[in-house]
Amino acid sequence: MVVYALRRLVQTLPVLFLSSILVFGLVRFIPGDPAMLIAGPDALPEQIVAARARLGLDKPIYVQYAIWLGQVVRGDLGVSILNGYPVFDLIARKFLATLQLTAGGLLVALCISLPLGILASVRRGGWFERLTSLVVALGQAIPTFWLGILLVLVFSLQLKWLPPSGQVAFSEKPGLALRLMILPSVTLGFYSATVLTRFLKSSMLEVMEMDYVRTARAKGLADTGILTRHVLKNALIPVVTILGLQLGAFLGGAVVTESIFDWPGLGRLMLQAIGTRDYPVLQGTVLFVVVTFVCVTLITDLTYGYLDPRIRYQ
Amino acid sequence: MTMSSSEPAKDRATRGDEAVQPWDLPEQPSQSRLWHRFLRHRGGVAGLVVVLAMFFVSVAAPLLSTHDPLVISKGNQFLPPSAAHFFGTDEFGRDIYTRTLHAGRISLLAGTVAALTAAILGVPLGLVSGYAGRGLDTVIMRCIDTLLAFPALLLALTIVAVLGPGSINAMIAVAIVGLPGFARLARASILVQKEMDFVLAAQAVGATARRIIFRTVLPNSLAPLLVQLTLAVAFAILVEAALSFLGLGTQPPDASWGAMLLSGRGHLRRAWWYGFFPGLFITSLILGLNSLADALRDVLDPTMANQGNNL
Question: CB contact, 8 Å: B25 with chain A?
Fold first, then answer.
């Protein structure tokens, strides 16, 4: 296990390194001179040169990258051009909101996929399986932003059950905070719910064919016992991997969901940064999300290797 | 994505170590037999009909529209659906039915071009990487892994932020995001074939690497690539629509489904139809493309692993 963990860790390092170059390079490609932005519209040429020197833009590009990377690993992501706040603090503040939304989406995804996936594999060939296939097909086709709009139309504007948008802290108004979370969580989690359902169902069916399940049945074990102790336990192992990948989808989908529901998270921060050309914030946010995603993938792989020792030797 | 690459390996491991011999392979079905098998696939036929219908209404949009998509008509704002305006009107009094049809042209064009670009760049990259092996393979695959380290929409968003908003730039971004899928699929395919007798035979008679890659291996990989292309078009349409919904794709006054939903979202209280019909079109088209891809997979290669679209 230790060897496997070290090998995966070593594989991750070049990806992290290349991602940092990509994030640094992409933002450098943006037309326009940051020094001119900082110095202001009516700055003298000397002031622009001074600003450029202060930002380190007069140095060769690889030196700039090395300096930037050095700052990044110490947790210094620069300051916002717009309001001068440290980018790290901005991200830290918004990340909690995104994390809360992600947790909600994950809960929705699991609450839908576990019962649907298990029941559809047990009741094969019936109307329930057909209904599940329909839900799965719809879930994979419906764009997140349209699902969000439909939910608002039906549950906020028509039925008036839930507020259409916004976010409040749980510590202030727990009831309202919970009600505000429902629609965004469903919007974010529905796609992943259908991916997980589909995967869990095929994983369950695969395990049901295994010899040890036949043996358990031949021994005369009760169906529910076989299902929970032998089938489900083994079928859930590969689902862990998919769950990890879905977290990446959450981080991307959060941009859309947050913009529909005015949710003050990382996605909104990124969109604002793009709109106001606040490049240090954009750079910092993208880097933060990518590093988070890479770490989640690594943890997922390690968990998978831990749960299923066969993976370690492939 | 990690899954799709590890799945074939797992399959090979669990299926046992009997090598597939040429005489074990089923005879290649002829085109007409494939077509008959496809026609028996109900989901696939339904998907094909939806996709063709969408392409038709988009291409024939100028003939089918009842109004001008861009002309502003004062006094006609926010009219509900009626015989004069099938899908109602928007905040400028423009006909939403007409605009939805015209938007389909941009979405379909953007999706198809982006997916094809991703295939044209990604497939050779994956084939060369898999055939060369060793150092070159490691370098190319690490770069592909890096692209995959970004959540798809986030990468597209960042690229558009760099290039500037607009349909063309959105297309470029979507193509880059779709590229790793093709590269990985092509690489997996050549890794399997590299050990097979017909490739070894081609090597033995002195065929060049280029000839083996593009004349021997590529034709044998077309089935999975066609399925991937269908899924990639769906994926590209979704990402383009998402970018437009975030205000970074197609710019006003041009209509695209994502951009229409963005403006519709701001007027949901007054006009439900504004946020409804463009979304219905996207969803139907994606549903059609996904069922078509499922059917192609079943018909062309029944042994292929069951993998989904990634967004």
Answer: no
Interface residue B73 vs chain A (CB under 8 A):
no
> How far is Cα A158 from Cα A149, in angstroms, rounded to an integer?
12
Whether A154 has its CB under 8 Å from any CB of chain B: the answer is no
Name chain A contacts of B3, Cβ cutoff 8 Å: 238, 241-242, 245
Of A111 and B275, more confident = A111
Name the token pair of B281: 């079109």
Alpha carbon A3 to chain centroid distance? 28
pTM beyond 0.90: no
pLDDT score of B26 = 52
Residues of A in contact with B12 (CB under 8 A): none
Domains and CATH numbers, chain B: 28-304 (1.10.3720.10)
Tens-digit pLDDT profile for residues A49-78: 887 777 777 788 888 888 889 988 888 888
- Pick from A143, A157, A271: CB nearest B282: A143
pLDDT, residue A136, reads 93
The reply to whether ipTM tops 0.90 is: no
CA A241 centroid distance within chain = 14
Long-range Cβ contacts of A4-12 (<8 Å, 24+ apart): A4/A302, A4/A305, A4/A311, A4/A312, A5/A302, A5/A305, A8/A298, A8/A301, A8/A302, A8/A305, A9/A298, A12/A294, A12/A298
Question: Within the 237-256 window of chain B, which residues sit less than 8 Å (CB to CB) from chain A?
Answer: 238, 241-242, 245-248
Which amino acid makes up residue B38? F
Tell whether A290 lies on the interface with B, counting CB pairs under 8 A: yes
Least Cα separation, residue A150 to chain B (angstroms): 7
Q: pLDDT digits over B140-193, tens only?
A: 998 998 998 888 899 999 999 888 888 899 999 999 999 999 999 999 999 988
Nearest CA in chain A to B141: A15
- Joined together, the tokens standing for residue B136 give 């070159």
> Could you give the CA distance from residue A172 to residue A184 in angstroms, rounded to a whole number?
19
What's the pLDDT at A171?
Answer: 81
> Band of the pLDDT at B299, cuts 50, 70, 90?
confident
Q: Which two tokens stand for residue A170?
A: 């749980």
